[in-house]
Amino acid sequence: MRLSSTRLGRANLDRLPPTIRRPAFDRSRVTPGIVHLGLGAFHRAHQAVVIDDCLAAGSLSWGIIGASLRSPDTRDALAPQDHLYTVAIRAAEGTEHRVVGALLDSVVAREKPVALVERMADPAIRIVSLTVTEKGYCHTPQTGDLDERHPDVVHDLNDLDAPRSAPGFIVAALARRRAQGLAPFTVLCCDNLAANGHTVQQIVTQFAALRSRDLGKWIADNIAFPSTMVDRIVPETTDADRDAVSSALGMRDAWPVMTEPFTQWVVEDRFAAGRPDLAAAGVELVTDVKPFELMKLRLLNASHSALAYLGYLAGYETIADTMVDPHFARLAAQVMEEAAVTLTMPSGTDLSAYRASLLKRFANPALHHRTWQIAMDGSQKLPQRLLGAMQDRLAKNLPIATHALAVAGWMRYVTALDEQGRAIDVRDPLAGEFAALAREAGPVAERLAPALLGVEKVFGPLGAEPRLREAVTAALGQLYTKSARQAVETLISA
């Protein structure tokens, strides 16, 4: 099929087919109120869609300036099409297409760090939001503290005029606003960190205090860091996805995003300089996000990671493929069941219904969410997704075999060799350290498991807990004596 050479853009929105939803507001009247750090697919399928709805409702001073901290790819794809892009919402019944117009401009931080700081220091900007993934905060996940030895942190502490890290950009912009007598902005974290608002406040305040004790105190006393919980599955966009979306539009979109019908955003209602009418766009505004954060991390994210590592080892390319296997579907359900007893939810929360909805979402055949993609950056994800629930279950003297198998799946994965001896492309900040430990230990569970459990940045003191070490070592032994699929089947059948 021959695809149109016409590019999606402001000038040809009226040429879209009537089935394509488009911005329901005059973009020429929209002014920026948000700078977003981490202009990736998740933000464009989640927060930007909510802001698009807010703009349609008349909150026209809340447009988004996006910032890619490193790669220019998103900017290069979206700038020629006036930063318009398509969200393709895929369900078994079909695909709905929506063109989003909330993103007004974008900056590549590494190219023009001063320009990004200036944007963030503009008094019109009242919220700086972030989706930079867990590793983007330059912290130690086990403690939540700033990693003072991180290369970007070292650079920024010595040269805050041209920052590289997310904490560095935030502190540089806040320092400039303070010096100019301007009101501070709200810092809104939208990443999967436990107590994400508090954690980012801790990281940013620690960074600022290393530059100036007074600046650190001013940030601690004056800046709002509301916590949030975000939920929407957003797979990586493929060339086939681009072709399918471009065909539906009748014109080319260089970087659409794929997602599912479900979306959720829970936000602590604590903003220093105002906010758009988020509730009208479906956001849940609450006084305490923590129960919802833990619910999502320990039910959705934990089972997702279990499926990703063990499913990848079993040869499944996507989560939906993995869920076709009844043993893996039961594995996901069992991870959720065992984590649910560690949660204390507000009255009226139906955890059984939530778990059932997750299993349905994972099995969505129209959503091609690759196990390899979810497996990225496991060293940053394990503490929040799996280890916290394991610690709580151990405190209640409850078994941890299911979670231990998920952790063992991660261990087997980061050796960088699959069950057939083929190389795995492990994407993780600590991938080199893991590979070195794996080479030294060899494929022997009794040596490899203790070596990896001793990585302080991942496991902290929990790695020395005898019951956890025994359970994880036994599970890893299963993965070396059986296939991943057989190990899952044995666990589920026990």
Short description:
Helices cover 47% and strands 12% of the residues. The protein is built from 21 helices and 13 strands. The protein has helices at 41-45, 47-56, 73-78, 113-121, 151-158, 166-179, 196-211, 213-222, 239-249, 290-313, 319-324, 326-340, 351-362, 371-374, 378-395, 401-414, 431-441, 445-453, 456-459, 466-481, 484-493, and strands at residues 32-37, 63-68, 85-91, 94-100, 103-108, 127-130, 139-140, 145-146, 186-189, 228-231, 257-259, 264-268, 284-286.
Main traits of this protein?
494 residues; alpha/beta; five-stranded parallel β-sheet; three-stranded mixed β-sheet; 21 helices; 12% strand
What share of residues are in beta strands?
5-15%
| Helical residues, percent | 40-55%
Strands ordered across the widest β-sheet: 5-2-1-6-9
* Count of DSSP H/I helices: 21
Kindly state the number of beta strands.
13
* Biggest pleated-sheet summary: 5 strands, parallel
Taken from the alpha-carbon principal axes, the silhouette is: globular
Q: Structural class of the helices, strands and pairings?
A: alpha/beta
Whole-number mean pLDDT = 96
Which ranges are low-confidence, i.e. pLDDT below 50, for 5 or more consecutive residues? Answer: none
Compute the CA-based radius of gyration: 23 Å
Query: Distance between termini?
Result: 51 Å
